[in-house]
Input
Amino acid sequence: MTRDDVPTLTIAVDAEAATDRDSWLALMDQIGEEAGHFQPLGARHWAFFVDESPILLVSFESLDEIRADQPGQMPLGHAIASGQGWSHLCLIADGETWYRDPAVYGYFDRLVDDAFFEDFDRVVFYGAGMGGYAACAFSVTAPGATVVAVQPVATLDPAVVGWDRRHLGQRRLNFTDRYGYAPDMTEGTGEVFVVVDPVQVPDAMHAALFRRPHVTVLRCPHLGDRLEVALSHMQILTPMIEAAGEGRLTPAAFARLWRARRQFGPYLRQMLTLSEQAGHLSRAARVCRSVTNRMSAPRFRKRLAELEALMAAPPEPPSASPPGQ
Output
């Protein structure tokens, strides 16, 4: 029997019923028994695997975000993979571990020894922030894989990125041993897509460290420091990962998705704010006019009227000098 002959498994267990961490872990273990596996990796990591098809999505996610933010308390990668009928492997971290744990290294070593990734026609590694770092760092185990990394960090080794004052408490972790420096670990991958807001200086500096011919930087200016959340709200994160899984993610394909910013309120408000802060009233008016021409936006319509009135008003005469001056 080939993989294509295996019927798609419907996961009937609802992890949303879990009311605490232990019950959630128990439910995930139950799902893993039915679908693939759910393994603890040391004290602060787990591997959750669902075997469905010859396309595999490998995601790196945090326990707190899964339980607090994701529908049904299931990993984001699970929602994307199940929607496409793909297989899914999720590495789950409890806290800011940065996946720097020999138990995690050992798990990937076993996958390599078992030729696990060779069972799949296409493999996509995905993560954001800490998960973006891990997606790049562990992609070395699956030659030819595609990587989609949102706001990836190259390393937290202060000898390399001493300029990054974020995550100071995690600098004590060892980023110089196995699977350490993420840009080097992407050697042998197929394509690496680094998604970054270049206005966020530390993120842009980390992105610049991924200097390889197979790396494509996809720029999303003015979306802020919670880029994964913004892309998700814009409804382009899932299509981007789906395109990677189908081998059709390119800069041109991303540019078409990126046009969704023209309907995304936080981005439009940021464009208006930046124009006004720079004193460019005519540019601010153009932003408002563009928005009101395309969508119902009372706030922008009101601000456009105010800006047009300001620009139409005659300039104030200079104040008279006091007598004797």
About this structure: Confidence is low (pLDDT under 50) at residues 1-13. The first strand starts at residue 36 and ends at 41. The CA atoms of residues 82 and 131 lie 20 Å apart.
